[in-house]
Amino acid sequence: MITFFQAILIGILQGFTELFPISSLGHSVVLTWLFGWNNITSSQAQDHSFFLYFLVALHFATSFALIIFYWKIWKRIIKGFFGSLAKRKIDNPDARLAWLLIFATIPIGIIGIAFEHTLRKQFAKPLSAIIFLIINGCLLLATEQYIRKNHIKSDGYSFSQTTSRVSTKLNLPRAAIIGVAQIGALFAGISRSGITMMSGLLSGLNHEDAARFSFLLATPVILGAGILKLPEFFSDQVAAGVHGQILAGAFAAGISAYISVKFLDKYFQSQTLRPFGIYCILFGIAMLVVGGLRGSF
């Protein structure tokens, strides 16, 4: 079904591209097709295949890396959440951030459970993924252009500070909108981190804060998907015989995800989404050319 080499390579790819705004699913679809790994490519659009469990394991490892990196922030968020329940009111930025994350998670949780397999079956194919990668790149560039043209600026909020900005720049309705925007990431080629960052930027967050909110939001989304499928991973015969490969890929994904978030957390302190937008467009065009020359489409 899948070799250890394939599992580790895809794990590394997943760990890096899950957090970069370039779509991990889109890249896994396109690159397995590019390498001629037909055993993996054909399984990605199936309702019930070992590769779905493989991706879940990689997501689980990625979420674990995010929890480790942002552990200090998560401790404050958890404390704020339970404090708000005990007091029956939201009276501090940490509690407010906890509820913002909850509101932003609900839409993708509901839609993801209902339509993920349908969308994956229809769109987790090389040509569709390539087209959506190009669209993803255009959206990233358009967002940066809109922000620059309309002079949308933040007022210096940082998640490491306790200020009132979280309630003025990112309220519950805006958090819910960001959550709805994540639904676009169910299409292979549209980046979840990219679309949440774009939504955050348009809400007035700066690049650093938009990235951190996106990465914090990724944790319950990715972890939830892993937890839902974990029992099936150990009991379903579809994954029988490849547990070792799946665990090896997950380990590789966790390590590369930690490296990625460490890099990106610093990168977005001073840089923008523009390079990733250009990359997605150029990569997508290159893959269209390759597919045309191969006669694959």
Description:
The chain is mainly α and 297 residues long. The chain has one domain (4-294). The protein is built from 13 helices and no strands. It has helices spanning 4-17, 24-34, 38-41, 50-69, 71-87, 93-123, 126-150, 165-169, 172-181, 192-202, 207-235, 243-267, 274-294. Helix 1 (4-17) crosses helix 4 (50-69), helix 4 packs across helix 12 (243-267) and helix 7 (126-150) packs parallel to helix 10 (192-202). The relative contact order is 0.20.
Major sheet description: none
Mean pLDDT equals 84
What is the tally of beta strands? Answer: 0
Strand percent estimate: under 5%
List the helices and strands in order: HHHHHHHHHHHHH
Helix content: over 70%
Measured distance between first and last alpha carbons: 24 Å
Q: How many individual helices?
A: 13
Structural class assignment = mainly alpha
Uncertain runs: none
How many domains?
Answer: 1
Nutshell version of this structure?
By secondary structure, the protein is mainly α. The chain is built from 13 helices and no strands.
Secondary structure topology:
Blueprint (H helix, E strand, L loop, with lengths): L3 H14 L6 H11 L3 H4 L8 H20 L1 H17 L5 H31 L2 H25 L14 H5 L2 H10 L10 H11 L4 H29 L7 H25 L6 H21 L3
Helix pairs in contact: 1-2, 1-4, 1-12, 2-7, 4-11, 4-12, 5-6, 6-9, 6-11, 7-10, 7-13, 9-10, 10-11, 11-12
Keywords:
297 residues, mainly alpha, 75% helix
